[in-house]
Amino acid sequence: MRFLCLIGLCICFATGAVAAPKTLVVGAGDCQSVELVTGLNDFSDALREQLKTDLYEPDVVLDIVRPRPTRSLEDVERQIESARTLFYNGQLERALDLLRQALAELERAPIAGQPWKVTSQALALQGVVLTMLNKKPEAADSFRRVLRVEPAHALSRDEFTPSVIAQFEGHRRELARQKRATMTVQSTPPGAEVLIEGKVMGVTPLKLDLAPATYRLAARAGERVSYLRVVSVPRDGQVQVDLAAEGALSTQAPLCLAASEKLAEAAALKLANTVTADDLLMVRLEGRKGEPGRFVASRYEIRSGSMVREGRVQAPSRGKPAFGALATFLLTGQGSSLIVSPEAPASARPAQPQAAAGPSSTSKSSSTPSASSQAPLEPMPPPPPPPAVEARGPISAGRVASFALMGAGVASLAGGVVAWLSGDADRTSLASLLVNGRLPEPSAPTHRQALDAIARNGSNQTLTFALLGAGVGLAAAGLVSFFAFPAEPVSVTALPLGGGGGGVFVSGGF
User: Fold this and answer.
1) Which residues make beta-bridge pairs with 265?
2) Residue 289 domain-assigned?
3) Phi, psi of 99 (to 5 degrees)
4) Quick one: DSSP state of residue 202?
5) Distance CA 25, CA 366 (A)
6) What residue spans of 247-396 are helical by DSSP H?
7) Distance of CA 196 to CAs 114, 202, 277, 346, Å?
8) Which of 99-103, 181-185, 504-508 has the lowest mean pLDDT?
9) Whether residue 251 has pLDDT greater than 60
């Protein structure tokens, strides 16, 4: 039995290591308010002490939705010019290294800043360098990346040789013959500029005909900029951008949404879903101008989209201990005298400490009549306790564990079968893309599609074999424990108690 318990503990720890919960903290309101920003930082510090690595850091979130550059666009342009000089001096490998660094930095450049002009220059020069290094498949990919976004792009005859220009024109004709796909982009509100790889393509609602590939897409309207999206054509035929919610997010830490309470709630939930967080804590400042404010923090469960609980603390007179109490209350439901009831005036009447609440509890206090306002009643003698009900059955704890293991094994095996069936479309697609069982030539339009299909098929096989292997192991462990631990009598006693309660007592061999 101890062996089986050890197996169960290992499974639980392994599961927790794979899917550790993540909590996101975001503020809402006037993101320029020093009081809100300071309180949000103090509250995040209090949460970090309790959650450790389970708390999403603002920089990580911003890099997901809006990758931020480490250098300015002017610095990248100078690096490309240095690479051009190295190329003319015959130092091809060093020039290629600089160009790859510049292109990696351009992928982090704010797409709303329209970095396409610099990106196209770097890609064209990289294609020439790769051609000189006899890396023709990579050179072709660089040239195609330019032409997919800007089919009319032309190389300067003053900078490039006739042979390079002829090669570039050959790729243009090849892409012109390739079947294109339609992608529709809509935004709320409409009329936003749509940028592909940093190049303005039009305003929403917009219909684009693009060559099948992967693109970076963003939308902007005035000061509001959407999250960065990586779209795959033709799979992503329709793209919907909620610019009102996405554009409300500040561009620097701490995470803050410059929006009204109702819009901020929807925007915060959208952000939490985008970064795949499990829990969301939204902080806002309430109170009239000229009066001491209160920080309100609400906890949401992302899976259900519902609020778990909400708490308030007086600010700033209570200081950092109040934020620690607020963090504890939101995470565990444990009350504190520092938690302010919703009905308390701005002078912050402290609420009485309360017991740990369940998942759906809130900090709102419920009023009950005072005991002193009621007339004393003659105590009634307690009724005699009902008789206990006892039942015995031929089952042991070992048998219960064996059934649980075999059930988990069957479920894992079923999951493996489902995973294998779900990858049938990828296997069929891969078979149709292969030429006599081999990959198409790198210059063929289906080469990248075949690589993607191989990657998806590999992931599907890994998941399938992992589930099948785990299922066989669990089922085998369940069968071994079934025969190793014979049935033993287990006594179950139900004992009703006073006040409408009761108790169940289980005894037996373990």
Assistant:
1) none
2) yes
3) -65, -40
4) E
5) 28
6) 261-274, 320-332
7) 9, 10, 27, 50
8) 504-508
9) yes
CATH number of the domain at 217, please.
2.60.40
Q: What share of the chain is helix, strand, coil (3-state, %, to 5)?
A: 45, 20, 35
Given a cut of 70, is residue 18 above it in pLDDT?
Answer: no
Give which of 105, 130, 129 is closest to 115, Cα–Cα: 105
Q: At what angle do helices 261-274 and 58-65 cross, to 10 degrees?
A: 80
> Do 275 and 355 fall into the same domain?
yes
Task: Give yes or no: residues 284 and 205 share one domain.
Answer: no
CA–CA separation, 184 vs 204, rounded Å?
Answer: 9
Pairing of strands 279-286, 294-301: antiparallel
* pLDDT beyond 50 at 484: yes
Q: Are residue 328 and residue 413 in the same domain, yes or no?
A: no
Total domain count, the chain: 4
Torsion of CA 284, 286, 291, 292, to 10 degrees: -50
- 41 in any annotated domain: yes
Domain boundary among 177, 207, 240: 177
**How far apart, in whole angstroms, are the C-alpha atoms of residue 323 and residue 330?**
10
| 375 falls within a domain | no
Region 314-319 average pLDDT = 59
Asked if residue 371 is part of any domain, the answer here is no
Taking CA atoms, 414 is separated from 10, 372, 408, in Å, by 22, 63, 10
Do residues 329 and 413 both lie within one domain?
no
Does one domain contain both 413 and 472? Answer: yes
Question: Last residue of a domain, which of 177, 195, 223?
Answer: 177
143 and 196 part of one domain: no
Q: What is the pLDDT of residue 67?
A: 85
What is the pTM (predicted TM-score) of this model? 0.60
> Which residue's structure tokens are 């610095």?
75
Enclosing H/E stretch for 318: none
Domain identity same for 395 and 499: yes
Going by the DSSP 8-state scheme, the letter that residue 358 receives in this structure is -
- Measure the CA–CA gap between 55 and 41, rounded to whole angstroms: 13
Question: Position of tokens 């030539």?
Answer: 441
- Cβ of 229: how many Cβ atoms within 10 Å? 18
Nearest to 309 by CA among 297, 321, 322, 320: 297
* Nearest residue to 231 (alpha-carbon basis) of 248, 259, 212: 212
- Phi then psi for residue 72, to 5 deg, are -75, 165
Whichever domain contains 173, its CATH number is: 1.25.40.10
Q: Are 484 and 398 in contact (CB under 8 A)?
A: yes
Q: Are 313 and 338 in contact (CB under 8 A)?
A: yes
Residue range 261-288: mean pLDDT, rounded = 89
Q: Give the DSSP H/E element, type plus range, for residue 240.
A: strand 238-242
Range of the domain at 165: 73-177
Per-residue pLDDT, 398? 65
Residues 47 and 115 in one domain: no
User: E-assigned strands of 251-323?
Assistant: 256-257, 279-286, 294-301, 306-314
Find all residues with CB under 8 Å of 41, minimum gap 6, and list them. 254
pLDDT, residue 486, reads 56
What CATH number corresponds to the domain at position 355? 3.40.50.10070
